[in-house]
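B., you asked whether I could sanity-check this one before it goes into the benchmark set. Here's the sequence:
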Amino acid sequence: MKKVITIIVILVTIITVIIVKLSYKKIKYGNNINSKSTEEITKYILDINSYEAKEEITVKSNKNTNKYVILEKCNKNENLYKKEFIEPENIKGLSFIYDGIDLKIENSRLSLKKIYENYLYIEEENSSIFDFIKTYKESEKTKIEETNEEIILIAKVKNGNKYIAYKKLYINRFSKKPIKMEIQNISQNEIMYILYNEIKINNLQKEDILAFKLKQMQSDI
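And here's what the prediction gave me:
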């Protein structure tokens, strides 16, 4: 009887050791996959060439909070940028259009049309994904945080100010798409956040660019 018990104990010990080793290998391999995926997804985001998005923007101040819904279309290679307000109702239809040289502000409902020729300040558009990418690449202090579902890219703004000092971009690990951006002040209090309710990455075709430019030419006639 003692011999049987001894054999059982030995077998249980061997099986336990095998399970522990297999589990360790699985955990180690799994961590390697996560690390590689994070690196790949980060590179994918930092290499974005174009995007189209429907965004919900919340801007906070000491006195109030304002919310906007906009449609945004950007192409880095062609240097095109368009932002059109959908909400609130009083500025619905207001759009900012940059064609690589001039900035046009227009709203047919308000009979508004203004062109700023040779506009040089489009890079000061702090809420765009391209501006985040630029901030992240230039920053001297960046960090990546992770959860099971998200990757969070964090950057301190180089030569920032007390109002805009930090930026965070939240990325869905599975879709590889941005889901939210946060902009924080020097005290790391949130002053603006952007929810990407709909977004398409690198989906702006040459035909879309040509149509964009043609529409601009026609509206100028």
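One thing to flag: Confidence is low (pLDDT under 50) at residues 2-33. Otherwise nothing jumped out at me.
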